[in-house]
Amino acid sequence: MKAVVFEQFGQPPTLQGVPDPTPSPEGVVVKVEATGLCRSDWHGWMGHDPDIVLPHVPGHELAGTIVAVGSQVRRWRAGQRVTVPFVAGCGHCRECAGGNQQVCEQQFQPGFTAWGSFAEFVALDFADANLVELPETLDSATAASLGCRFATSFRAVVDQGRVRAGDWVAVHGCGGVGLSAIMIASAVGANVVAIDLTDEKLDFARQLGAVATINAARTEDVVAAVRDLTGGGAQVSLDALGHPVTSANSIGNLRRRGRHVQVGLMLGDHARPPIPMDRVIAYELEILGSHGMQAFRYQAMFDMIAAGKLMPQKLIGSRIGLEEAPEALMRMDRFDGIGISVVTRF
Fold first, then answer.
1. Which residues of 217-254 are buried (b: 16+ CB within 10 A; e: fewer)?
2. Which end of the chain is more exposed for a tag (fewer CB within 10 A), N or C?
3. Tens digit of pLDDT at every position of the chain (346 positions)
């Protein structure tokens, strides 16, 4: 099969011919119909993820059709259209038993712990615990775009952030995660303030439901600006980028007893940012992480999509071929363009 492979961290990936995968006893092989490009893939390529063993095929946002099934798989058969959370649980540990597959003790992550979906085929382990059947009405490109950014944002807003109608929600960073969070928070009735460095992305954020925007490149004090717009601070604030500045601003712009949700990855030199613990204590703030979403929670998201309350297809910025993926992956640190790039031609 054809696959995008990198053999050294930070060195240009190439399109190569590699052996087709075979399913593990608990796994399946999926023919990839679409796969998204995510900044997490860029972090992996840069060497920020210790799980990656070289040579490696990236890619973790995917949709496709099952073509082979392992001997111990009971719930799935060839021909079914599926996707999978980017954090998949083993199905056997304590966290999985408690319904928290997103923090599984032995988690499987396509594109990180195993070869991923920048390929014609991908092997997915622990199929019975993790695969999600796709509605017939959901096209593969949109389904692939759900896998990391949209699903992660759904859990960050709805489950972790516990956003309610009427809440003020600040979203720092209007990339794929941030734009997804803006759409979802708006859909549940929140008032969203979007913060980014470019007017182009902020204009798009308004189209997705933001009621106010702040250009951080032209604003001397982002925290003060958010607190002014919200009448004292946001009830919920998300760092959707993953940077010490956006994380600090997100915590700083909360009102008393507010909730900060860290969604953007903090890796490499940014892995351990300072936290204003004096404010956390005095304001009784909650600091929450959000790491993917369990397979069983996808139905709630699908129901909102079917009802027209969520329209993730609006977030697809470009559809490209697999041969274009290496260059697109290397450009992920530039934050170019609006929306999500999805590989749809193999």
1. eeeeebbebbbebbeebbbbbbbbbbbbebbbbbbbbb
2. N
3. 999 999 999 999 999 999 999 999 999 999 999 999 988 899 899 999 999 999 999 999 999 999 999 999 999 999 999 999 999 999 999 999 999 999 999 999 999 999 999 999 999 999 999 999 999 999 999 999 897 889 999 999 999 999 999 999 999 999 989 999 999 999 999 999 999 999 999 999 999 999 999 999 999 999 999 999 999 999 999 999 999 999 999 999 999 999 999 999 887 788 889 999 999 999 999 999 999 999 999 999 999 999 999 999 999 989 999 999 999 999 987 766 787 899 999 9
In the chain, where the domains are located: 2-134+311-345, 151-289
The single-letter code of the amino acid at 215 is N
CATH number corresponding to 2-134+311-345: 3.90.180.10
Q: How far apart are CA 35 and CA 122, in angstroms?
A: 11
Q: Report yes or no: 150 and 312 within 8 Å, Cβ to Cβ.
A: yes
Say whether 151-289 and 2-134+311-345 share the same fold: no
Fold adopted by 151-289: Rossmann fold (3.40.50)
- C-alpha 266/C-alpha 182 separation (Å) is 21
Question: Which residue bears the tokens 């734009």?
Answer: 179
